[in-house]
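Lab channel / #folding
Pinned by the channel admin:
"Please post every new chain as: sequence first, then the structure tokens as a reply. Keep commentary short and put observations after the output so the thread stays searchable."

First post following the new format, from NK:
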Amino acid sequence: MKTLLPTAALAALTLLLAGCGLGGDRHPPMPDLTTDPNMIVHGRIIGQDALISPGTAVITALDITTAELGPQQEMPTSMHVAADGTFTLAFPSATAVRPYLTPYVPAPAPLSEECSDQLETTPPTLQTVIVNGLYFAGDKDARTTRSWAQAVTHRTTRNLDGSTTEDARYLLWMYADVPAHLTRTMTCTDTQTQYVGTSRMDLTVHAGWNTLATTKTFTVFPDGRRRQTNTAANVPGPMANTVWEQYWFMAPTPGS
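Reply from TO:
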């Protein structure tokens, strides 16, 4: 059984930032599990805790979005998750990342909407890897269960004018092969559904790992109008005390 990501989560992740494709050897016989001592994230997984027995979970891979092969590509890792869901995640080293680098390609504008899009990548030869989630596996009734989690915080507010606003903040980690500057402004409208969406990105990244945040604000008005704003920004440091929400799981197979 697999529960899909909420539409809002997908929109926030794909609208501003592109993924990265695999380069070089797509199937390295021995994955490099060396880590970067300067990029260590402390987090806690929350959500459907009962799916995995306490203290058995291990982070098995980072989820990277790839331009060539689409979402949910994996970069192997191995980190223990404590019984209370906390973990310390050391990101892959430069040598471990290298086989996964590909030219940075911004996500395309939605085909179902009319969009104006202005973007610039300097230098245009930039190569990246973008991590947007993690896979973890553990024991459930003596069988293996595999789950996916994403670093996200969110809240819903009912406004005085009767509208409802959802605010969400997603953390992403981008590895860049060289220093770069990324800008994008995109506005999309759909007159049939009364939707207007605006996305803004102004990022300065250094060579190596960078912490980024995508903030989404989505408001639904009583008359049916919908407004969404996405903004991508740099976040200093690797981040401590991050909350990773479990979105879906793959149920254990009898006899596994």
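NK: DSSP finds two helices and 14 strands in the chain.
TO: also worth noting, Confidence is low (pLDDT under 50) at residues 1-15, 18-29.
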